[in-house]
Design brief:
Helix content is 30%, strand content 30%. It contains 9 helices and 14 strands. The chain starts with a strand and ends with a helix. Bound molecules: pyridoxal-5'-phosphate.
């Protein structure tokens, strides 16, 4: 089941004014939209579980940050929240227990000067195997130093842009190497993030994730996971991490909005132990979120 809400924009000011649910199977995008011709836009994907859109406020904040980085008009959180919630309600009414809602803002049709926006909801695939047995990852050089966000902000490292062709190519490279997913490493040797996920390690009894000032996204799932973990008595921290830290970690996970927590069961072909019990508790905690 698919649901689409289009965002309406004022033709004079370019301001978002509201949303309307439309036929999900009808065409809605112009071929000259800068999303299609340049990948020039931003997006977020939120998880829908049992009628609740998870971490919606954190997604809206990151959406606004990405917009600032691309000099797109500031997305009105009230308009976008209402659109996402309307899609969620329609999916839930249609019997979807677990789904995802992707919302997108583009620079609009070439020359028009008015953005394009929509929210698209669909049912999620079954991620049981990834969440329980785990994923095999490879480390791939991202080709940028860890300070790229500071030295070269025009590369948009840390913005959630529509230009994910590189991320998709990295996953194909992983498949060629017999793996399921990727962990990017900076050219100067620091662990970054997956193409669609955040790394979390269990190191010396604390949960650790890479610092977010190294050109990576601040993960909404990782944020909620750390809030839960602190309530459970885990220390948490944001650090500069290297492949040696991954080697010595007691457990590693890739966490993200739609797949949730996937334990890492192999790195570059070398098997790793999966902490099945802690992973199950993490996924249950995420499912239990009320917002
Ligand atoms: N890093 C990248 C590059 C991503 O695309 C994503 C999500 O798609 C994440 C991290 C994880 O973020 P979140 O937990 O908010 O989904």
């Amino acid at each position: 089941m698919n649901v689409v809400a289009l965002i309406d924009f004022d033709a004079a000011t370019g301001a978002a004014t509201g949303h309307r649910l439309v036929d999900a199977d009808a065409p809605h995008l112009r071929v000259t939209d800068l999303a299609a011709t340049r990948g020039d836009g931003i997006f977020e994907t939120a998880s829908l579980v049992a009628g609740r859109v998870q971490a919606l406020e954190a997604h809206l904040v990151r959406f606004q940050q990405s917009a600032r980085m691309l000099a797109l008009p500031d997305p009105d959180a009230d308009v976008w929240r209402a659109a996402v919630l309307a899609v969620a309600e329609a999916l839930t009414a249609g019997g979807v227990e677990e789904g995802s809602i992707k919302f997108v803002l583009t620079r609009g049709v070439e020359g028009a000067g008015i953005p394009t926006g929509w929210a698209f909801g669909t049912v999620s695939p079954d991620f049981t195997a990834d969440r329980t047995q785990g994923v095999r990852i490879v480390l791939l050089d991202r080709g940028y130093r860890h300070d790229v966000a500071e030295t070269s902000p025009w590369l948009l490292a840390g913005a959630k842009t529509l230009s994910y062709a590189v991320n998709r190519a990295a996953v194909r490279e992983a498949a060629r190497r017999g793996a399921d997913d990727v962990l990017f490493v900076s050219s100067d040797g620091y662990l970054l993030e997956g193409p669609t996920s955040t790394l979390v390690l269990r190191l010396d009894a604390r949960l650790v994730t890479p610092r977010v000032d190294i050109g990576i996204l601040a993960g909404t799932t990782q944020g909620d996971l750390f809030t839960w973990a602190e309530q459970e008595g885990f220390a948490t921290s944001y650090e500069l991490l290297t492949p040696a830290d991954l080697d010595r970690a007691e457990a590693a996970w890739l966490v993200s909005s739609v797949r949730h927590v996937a334990p890492v069961r192999a790195v570059d072909g070398v098997p790793r132990t999966v902490d099945a019990e802690l992973t199950a508790r993490m996924n249950a905690a995420l499912d239990a979120r009320t917002r």
